[in-house]
Amino acid sequence: MDAMQMVIPVLGIAAAAAVTFYAVSFSEIRERSFAELEESEDRGGGFRSTASSRQTRARRKAEKEARKREP
After folding, report:
1. Is residue 1 part of a domain?
2. pLDDT value at position 39?
3. Total structural domains in the chain?
4. Do 17 and 11 meet the contact criterion of CB atoms below 8 Å apart?
5. Residue 19 domain boundaries
6. What are phi and psi of 2, to 5 degrees?
7. pTM above 0.85, yes or no
8. Is residue 13's pLDDT more than 80?
9. Is 52 inside a domain boundary?
């Protein structure tokens, strides 16, 4: 038997195993994130809105500018 006849099926099996691993991993991550979202909604939380992100960026920018003016 030629070496290539042995290598190609082995590479195919390894590729299938890698695809399966990543599919299962991403599925578990998605399920975990949905569970965390449900828990945070039960506590009255949830994801931050874009307005909160903008406020955070504005605060950081103001702090950075204030540090530049101090010296």
Report:
1. no
2. 74
3. 1
4. no
5. 14-69
6. -75, 150
7. no
8. yes
9. yes
Whether residue 7 is contained in a domain is answered as no
pLDDT in tens, 18-55: 999 999 998 888 888 877 777 766 665 555 556 678 88
Is 9 a domain residue? no
Instruction: Yes or no: say if 67 and 59 are a contact pair by the CB < 8 Å rule.
Output: no
Contact between 40 and 46 under an 8 Å Cβ cutoff? The reply is yes
12 neighbors 20 (Cβ within 8 angstroms)? no
Cα(17)–Cα(12) distance, integer angstroms: 9
Q: Which 8-state DSSP code applies to residue 7?
A: H
Three-state SS string over 17-41 comes to HHHHHHHHHHHHHHHHHHHHHHHHH
